[in-house]
Design brief:
Length: 177
Amino acid sequence: MSGAQTAIFAGGCFWCTEAVFNDVIGVHQVESGYIGGETPHPTYEQVCSGGTGHAEAIRITFDPAVISYADLLDIFFATHNPTTLNRRGNDVGTQYRSAIFPHSPEQAEQARAAIDRAQGDQTDPIVTTIEDDAPWYPAEDYHQKYYQKNKLRYNAYKYGSGRVDRLGELWGDENNK
């Protein structure tokens, strides 16, 4: 993966966020994990408690010759509601915040530009934060590709979380199957 770059986004539960990016052309890998908190090597249970400060997030390894960081940001904003503070559907708490963790000043600049672009599609202000790069902790193995390993549970979660309704608002129900 020569020339590959990394992007880290937190957009609610990592199960749904990972599923969005896994089939994007130019994306080599999507890993679920935790970032932005104080506890070293947190567990899922610790992060879910809301006490560690971590966000459930995904780390995307991508080929910038095929898909740009800006395009990944636009997908990120189009596939979750970035206007609700610490809430994505039924998931509530700082661990479900909408956040971007840039790895460079250039990525931070592109994140600010993406927020400006996305704001035009919103009636409420975007609350997505741009946070400092921080240590990345991969989630436990059973969380990786959860949507593939646990299709029934994942679909029940996906529809119950409000994400499908959000995509229907943005793209219309006929494009959201």
